[in-house]
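#lab-general

N.A. 3:47 PM
ok so I finally got the sequence cleaned up, no stray characters, all 250 residues accounted for. can someone with queue access submit it? mine expired

B.Y. 3:52 PM
send it over

N.A. 3:53 PM
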Amino acid sequence: MTRIIILAAGKGTRMNSDLPKVLVALRDRPMISYLMDSVASAGVDPRPLVVVSPDNLDIISQALKNYNVEYVIQPEQLGTGHAVSCARETISRESPDAKNIIVLYGDHPFLKTESIRKFSAVDIEALTIMPTQLSDFEGWHQNFYHWGRIVRDASGDVEAIVEFKDASEEEKLITEVNPGFMCFNKNWLFDNIVRLKAENKQREYYLTDLVQIAFSEGHTVGTINIEAHEAMGINSLEELKVAESLIPDV
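B.Y. 4:20 PM
back already:
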């Protein structure tokens, strides 16, 4: 059994919107609705968990009233690791036999049903990620420039994900980037998420720091590569315009 956690607590400040970011319209639909359609079609988790803030619970639950979801409150915005940890009690209580946990983001509208199914089918000892490899950061690929970088060792194994604000100039040259999609062995995740520390420029608990923890323990961090269009997220009005241009006219 696989449970899905969708992070949706962010505000729409950078989108110049009073709405939660995931409810900003993409071609006249809340951007999260595209992801919700893919999750529902995948049939992996019949009732995924959506992590929201106390302030946006009502408006998001109204927008998603046609989807079968369960809500988890993140009382403070302390990072992605903290957001996932807020769902720990619910999953432990309701799904003690769950094997894997998939973490997705409500501001990534183009993730495909097939990719979610692939994620769920992987036999995971610690975690698997879905990176995307770019040729460069030119054109609409500039949307990915401020994303975390996939750092590999001399053998080509993933050893860390370094967030852009914490990256060195050399690391910023890496063109393999992290959309944020992660699939964890549930027991490994809950045993190790308590080890996260907010020792970074954002003073947040990064879920991506679990990659380095897994590597340090000798685990192979699995990868399922996806193409750039599918990986794209939306964090600004400029990125929203790019996303709109990538949706074919009907």
